[in-house]
Amino acid sequence: MSAILEVKGLEASYGQLQVLRGLDFEVAKGGVTALLGANGAGKTTTLRAICGMIRRKGEITFDGQRIERLGTEDVVRLGVAHIPEGRGTFGTLTTEENLHLGAMTRPNNSDIQADVERCYGFFPRLKERRNQQAGTLSGGEQQMLAIARALMLRPKLMLLDEPSFGLAPLIVRQIFDILADVKREAGVSMLIVEQNASLALELADHAYLIETGSIVISGEAKAIREDESVRASYLGY
Amino acid sequence: MDLFLQQIVSGFATGGIYACMALSVVMIYQAIHHLNFAQGEMATFSTFIAWQLLAWGLPYFAVIPLAIGLSFIGGFVVERVVFKPIENAPVLSHIVIFIALFAIFNSAMGFIWDFSIKPVPSAFGEGPLYEGSLLSKHQTGMIAVTMLVLVLLWAFFRFTRVGLAMRAAAANPQSARLVGIRVSFMTALGWGMASAIGAVAGILIAPVVFLEPNMMLSILLYGFAGAVLGGLTSPLGAVIGGFIVGIVENLAGTYIPVVGGELKLPIALFLIVVVLVVKPEGLLGRRVVQRV
Predict the structure, then answer these.
(1) Residue B48 has pLDDT above 90, yes or no
(2) Residue B288 pLDDT greater than 70, yes or no
């Protein structure tokens, strides 16, 4: 399978502090890749670097096109949907308006309303809350909204930053089940950052382990999940 | 009783002026979350452009769209040239530039058109609306246009994609970028719209107060008061606030002997303080509800 995203020698810093020290990795077309690692390893920074939210160096190729010099809006317009940590919903706008915003870069036609309905199919809870201010949704509902909004872009690649963050285990389970559906039905490639390694490895085909800004282990998700020594020393479960 | 009614109606008419300016204030607040101190001077500048076009012999129906269009472009360009380069600078830098713009526009008007008072004819004609009417033709027209601008604004934000994008960009710039909205372009658009609305306000106000470079000095303050009273996030609130300020100002001037003509302006400031203490989000402004 060819790669939708190829990253070579990715470096990024916050001021003097270098956070990423030459990362190399790729995401296969239609596949799910997980980035695992402890707090402060540079997982979130990697996602932010890909979609131009911070300055970065190195080569980033998305769908055959170099994107490391593009601004965030332009990366998004190519079909990269980033679901940031903390979900980034528009709290003062309604659920449905949030969904329409997801499709902002697409031409204005009737497909958009059909896609809204499709999102409600994945997340029936959002349909009940369609006219409610997004800021008043529960944490789980907001995470669902963030994923649904990303789908409205009809993305080729989704970047998910800690979708389990701050949610009850039952809700997390639900969200990962839906992500598995999305992967199967919509064929969207995903790059997922997660602290909950066992969940992420279930969903992912391939995984990378990051430690202080460098990749230390790369391999099939299945193999990593079953490797006792990796689990004990890096994943802690 | 007759005097009371007369004062309410005349306050209502003055309120129309403030309501119109308050709309412009709300528009810029939507876009940049600050109050632009130069808003009034920019609106006066637009009015001078309209006056100049009239003086060159153009008819009113050509002058109005032209002046509004030029003001839109002007506001847009001011944002691109002056504020884009400092978009990440602290708020104090922005305030300094607001003040600088105020001085620049004010002096430029004095330089180009001098400081003498210029009468501006009303687009709606002279005289009372009908025999014995308390409102003049111009006052009626002014209130009608303010309402029209309000409805247009509401429809724009509620039903158009650009309107939705502008609201999103104002509410959460970072997330807006993540859905592909060009946030800084939206800000410039907000400036353009605010200055177009300012032009409408200026053209409506000039026949009442006469045109000169300091025309908007106190009106902007009343406009601020109206916008704060109604809620800086709500166009409808701003218009209602503008009318209330006009009526309160008039009644206080008439019935409270100390206030008279000289102390009318502090009433606007007093209103701002009271609203901020008692109901900071204003009458119709939205308190942001956030579940944590």
Answers:
(1) yes
(2) no
CATH number of residue A222's parent domain? 3.40.50.300
Report pLDDT for A235: 67
User: Å from B28 to nearest chain A CA?
Assistant: 18
| ipTM of the prediction | 0.89
Q: Which residue has the tokens 């009372």?
A: B128
d(CA A147, CA A102) in angstroms, rounded, equals: 10
**CA of A149 vs chain B CAs: smallest distance (Å):** 9
Question: Which A positions 74-133 lie with beta carbon below 8 A of chain B?
Answer: 76-77, 81-82, 84, 88-93, 97, 100-102, 104-105, 108, 133
* Among A138, A154, A170, residue at a domain's last position: A154
The token pair at B259 is 């206030």
Comparing C-alpha atoms, which of B2, B146, A204 is closest to residue B138?
Answer: B146
- At B33 the three-state DSSP class reads coil
Question: Which of helix, strand or coil describes residue A58?
Answer: strand
Give the distance from residue B292's alpha carbon to the nearest chain A alpha carbon, in angstroms. Answer: 8
Out of B164, B172, B177, the one facing A97 most closely (by C-beta) is B164
Per-residue model confidence as pLDDT tens digits over A67-121: 999 999 999 999 999 999 888 899 889 999 999 999 998 887 778 999 999 999 9
Q: For residue A145, is pLDDT > 90? A: yes
pLDDT in tens, A182-192: 888 888 999 99
Domain extent, residue A121, equals 88-154
Q: Which two tokens stand for residue A163?
A: 């979708």
Choose the final residue of a domain: A103, A120, A154.
A154
Q: Contact at 8 Å (CB) between A46 and A36?
A: no
DSSP A135: G
Number of domains in chain A: 2
